[in-house]
Design a protein that fits this description.
- It is built from 3 helices and no strands.
- 31% of the residues are buried.
- The chain starts with a helix and ends with a helix.
- It has helices spanning 3-33, 37-66, 75-106.
- The chain is 87% helix and 0% strand.
- By secondary structure, the chain is mainly alpha-helical.
């Protein structure tokens, strides 16, 4: 496989998994707002799994750069990394919000 095709495949895999993680995280937030904390936590676990897949591909990308197989990143790689960063931040904040909603419900 040509290096550009490989980079495109990696970028698209990161984008797809980061998107799945982010949307699943927001679904968890919705469940927590409705008081379904068990389902919210299941959804966050699924978001963790999708994010882990994105991180695996990101690690592959970083290894390719470290080995000199890739000399420069293109806009698609930057876009993929942006998606991963946004998904990670969203998920981490939503974990906190779910906890807050749960504590509020206990009161």
């Amino acid at each position: 496989m040509e290096i550009n095709e490989k980079l495109e495949e990696i970028a698209m895999t990161i984008i797809a998994n980061a998107g799945a993680s982010k949307s699943t995280s927001f679904a968890a937030l919705s469940k927590a707002k409705g008081g379904d904390f068990e389902e919210a936590k299941k959804l966050l676990k699924a978001a963790d799994e999708a994010e882990a897949e994105a991180h695996k591909m990101h690690s592959t990308l970083l290894q390719m750069f470290a080995k000199g197989e890739v000399k420069e990143a293109d806009i698609l790689i930057a876009h993929a990394q942006d998606h991963l960063m946004a998904a990670t931040l969203s998920k981490e904040l939503i974990y906190e919000l779910v906890e807050v909603y749960e504590k509020l419900k206990e009161r």
